[in-house]
Amino acid sequence: MNIILALTSFLCIISINAAAATPNLSDRLNIPIKGQPYQLDTIISNNKIHLKMPEHFDQLEKYPSHIAENIKQRIIYRTRNVDTMSEFSNNIDAVISKHQLMQRTEYSRKLTEILLSIHYSTKNDKDPLFAHLPLLRRLPKYTKVNLIVPKRMRDEIWKEIQKNRMADRVTLHEVDTWYLKENGVELIHDTTQWAQDLLEMAYDENGTSYLLAPATRYQINDLSRSDNRYLKKLENSTRKVIYLPLFFRGGNILLGKSEKRILFIGEREFINNRSDYHNSLFVHPNHDEVISLYKKMTGADKIVTVKNSRNLFHIDMAMSFISDGRAALIKPIDENNLSADDSAAIQSIEAALIENGFKITYIPTTVDRINTFKSPVNIVIYEHLDNGNTEALVPLFDDVVIEKGSSLNDLIFETYHNAGINPIYIENRFHSAKGNLHCAISVLN
């Protein structure tokens, strides 16, 4: 009996030690532990600040009062941010430890429900739906629309929705303007028109869907008051909103499938995530764990990092996955005029697609269109619910006459058609704000 008791105690000790030796997601990502000493490195009013905290707290007296107060505020923010990022880590860890999350490829989605968002700058003097109306009119009749709107624009937007006989398919979610004003830090943020950047979608084995949102949209000062908390309005009985301990933009993340499920991510996501971690927490994240989290939140077998450029700042401006084993990629007819920066980005994506077993459908464009953010691959592709056909909402731009008097728009249309896609042209009114249709839509189902 004593041997059994001793063995039981020994096994309990091993179990406890094993649990203690297995760090949670927060630890693996390098999110600080509350109360730990840390290095505060920042720049305030052109002054480089390097302090070991809390050891050097008394040294704040040597700085001018406005700088000292700013540093104190950053310390307060960091404390809140550590708590918030730890909470976000625990929340997603609780999901991925119990469930296998999978993201659907865009071309397999039905477009039964989407998310759009209106920023006050997308209206013109007369029409608050100026940018979105051509898109709303061309959606499948069965598509339900969640429309995030600034509270101060709600009434005029609803009047336009009713005027265009869309009240039965559009649900408005009004959002207050976000303010932060503390000790010299003053920020004001409104909603964004780029719904694609707001979240990533995933499902578990039980059919529950998850809207996976970045830690914040714009501001990284006080993550406990994230400026994207309004996404919680989208929760329902079968859909949960989970905020992640990551900073990302959805337009720079695309899932494709060849022999494996491969997630393409633009390099800026890792650069910006690293920078935002440091600015909010004064640490850098563990890159391998960031990669691991991307895999677990999408069900990807592999992560592929490709280049971004000034004009192709998100990869959805250069490419889209259009079927298993195939991707669309822009190919300027005057590519000799491409900047070295944009050329390198396109070549990086092309090489990565080929290396990972994807065939490529080249979509013609011009350097001028690239330089003015008019992308023919910034499409919303889906499988039509009624007939199973593959369709794509394709942004329509002013036409260009190319060799032998032919039309560039016609050539784009023909290229998609030959790839087995029914292209639905939509007048694009987003490019002046450096985006197109895919940037403006997040598909929820």
List the helices and strands and how they pair.
Blueprint: H1 2-21, H2 25-28, E1 38-44, E2 47-53, H3 65-96, E3 113-117, H4 133-138, E4 144-150, H5 154-163, E5 170-175, E6 178-182, E7 185-189, E8 200-203, E9 209-213, E10 239-243, E11 253-257, E12 261-266, H6 267-281, H7 287-298, E13 302-306, E14 319-323, E15 326-332, H8 340-355, E16 359-365, H9 367-371, E17 380-383, E18 390-396, H10 408-418, E19 422-427, H11 437-440, E20 442-443
Parallel strand pairs: 3-4, 4-5, 9-10, 12-13, 15-16, 18-19
Antiparallel strand pairs: 1-2, 3-20, 6-7, 8-9, 11-12, 14-15, 17-18
Structure report:
The chain is 30% helix and 25% strand. The protein has 2 domains: 27-96, no CATH class; 106-443, L-arginine/glycine Amidinotransferase, Chain A (5-stranded Propeller). It contains 11 helices and 20 strands. The termini are far apart. With 445 residues, it is of the alpha/beta class. The strands form 7 sheets. The chain has a 4-stranded mixed β-sheet with strand order 5-4-3-20. Strands 8-9-10 form a 3-stranded mixed β-sheet, covered by helices on one side. A 3-stranded mixed β-sheet has the order 11-12-13.
